[in-house]
Design brief:
Strand order of the largest sheet: 2-1-3-4
Number of helices: 16
Mean pLDDT: 90
Low-confidence stretches: 1-19
Number of domains: 1
Largest sheet: 4 strands, parallel
Structural class: mainly alpha
Distance between the termini: 25 Å
Order of helices and strands: HHEHHHHHHEHEHHEHHHHH
CATH class: Alpha Beta
Helix content: 40-55%
CATH architecture: 3-Layer(aba) Sandwich
Strand content: under 5%
Number of strands: 4
């Protein structure tokens, strides 16, 4: 059963634009508290493009509300969250951006024995325990119906990347690059956890642990998390959550490169406070991949092969039921028969989905093959 086809068509970086996303739609920065937002602006010396000043003003106003709501949430729920024990470690869906992590995550969370963070919870991690019962119902119209980078359906109730929650909590993340894309990319060390500052690491760990505790406190189930940057963090994650399982998805490297180029152009155009020039975008795509997979391959042995299940995007697209069964059996996630009908229904509903089409210039294709040779060979993309 095929969910989507993998086709190609020439695509090059788009011309610089700013905020094609509706002005009222939530950005990553809208979930931050005022102090974290001020630090982000100061770190980049407030180099806002004039067209980004309106967005900066709305973020400033919303972060003030977030700070007040955070204090109320701490008063009402702080003790309960702090006392919550994570008895069953999370399952992490990992893999490079645009490798199919979203599809895999949506398939896995069909199992009602697991919980997952929603889009609202990841965009409002500082107060979702307080506001999550009401605000998504009131503010549903703020989200566009499709993601701008790939036309996948989105809503406040859809599964979402916990990396966005970490950003909103002020934790170090390479995703901060999107705010000021013309500046040097920050926190690249958090793609492989090499030479990470001690205080930054403690901040990051505390934010992730707090978020998982809030999820556990609210839902009382083991959590399935999905975040591409976690790919190069598996050793730290397994130390934080002993017994954690990792579902690792890979994809044709040429498609990865082309799709990532489109991803960052889309996010920069829709989320940034600058008019993105994309002068060094291709090199960023190369370096981010190399750091992420350098970290992942170094850390695999420490985590243990029994805790990591590799999946190929192409096989998942062709046979989602068979691939999910393999994951369940390999990682011992429980009875697969209970969730199989829901996965079959999901796959049937996704038949009409058409992915974006990509193709690379010959010189870039040669560079991808040369620089990502290890990935080609290890995962069978020769």
């Amino acid at each position: 059963m095929s969910v989507a086809a993998n086709t190609t068509q020439e695509t090059k970086p788009e011309k610089p634009k700013l905020n094609r996303y509706p002005m009222w739609a939530p950005r990553f920065w809208h979930g931050m508290r005022l102090g974290d937002w001020a630090r982000l602006a100061w770190r980049n010396k407030t180099r806002f493009h004039p067209c980004g000043l309106g967005l900066a003003l709305t973020v400033s106003n919303v972060t003030l509300f977030n700070s007040v709501a955070y204090r109320l949430q701490q008063m009402l729920y702080g003790r309960g969250v702090a006392e919550t024990k994570i008895e069953q470690p999370p399952v992490f869906v990992i893999g490079h951006w645009r490798s199919g992590t979203t599809m895999l995550h949506e398939l896995m969370v069909l199992d009602e024995r697991f919980a997952y963070p929603t889009t609202y919870e990841c965009f409002a991690p500082n107060h979702f325990l307080l506001t999550g019962g009401l605000f998504p119902k009131l503010l549903w119209f703020l989200l566009p119906s499709k993601r701008p980078m790939d036309n996948m359906t989105v809503s406040f109730g859809h599964p979402q990347e916990d990396e966005f929650a970490l950003v909103s909590m002020g934790a170090p993340s390479p995703m901060f690059r999107i705010a000021f894309p013309n500046d040097p990319a920050p926190f690249m060390e958090f793609l492989d956890m090499q030479d990470v500052d001690k205080d930054d690491l403690a901040h990051w760990k505390n934010a992730l642990l707090q978020f998982v505790r809030m999820q556990t406190y609210l839902k009382r189930k083991p959590v399935i998390l999905k975040s591409p940057p976690h790919t190069g963090r598996i050793e730290v994650l397994s130390e934080m959550f002993p017994g954690a399982k990792f579902v690792h998805i890979v994809r044709d490297p040429y498609s990865l490169f082309a799709s990532n180029r489109r991803l960052w152009v889309s996010l920069d155009n829709n989320q940034a406070f600058q008019r993105a020039k994309h002068k060094h975008l291709d090199e960023y795509v190369f370096q981010a991949f190399e750091r992420m997979y350098g970290g992942f391959e170094r850390q695999r042995e420490a985590v243990g092969s029994e805790n990591i299940c590799d999946v190929h995007y192409e096989q998942l697209v062709q046979d989602p039921v068979g691939e999910l069964r393999k994951i369940y059996e390999y990682l011992e996630l429980g009875d697969f028969e209970n969730v199989q009908p829901r996965i079959e229904e999901y796959a049937a509903n996704k038949k009409a989905y058409k992915p974006n089409q990509h193709q690379l210039e010959p010189e870039i294709k040669e560079e991808v093959r040369r620089r990502w040779a290890g990935y080609f060979e290890k995962y069978g993309y020769e």
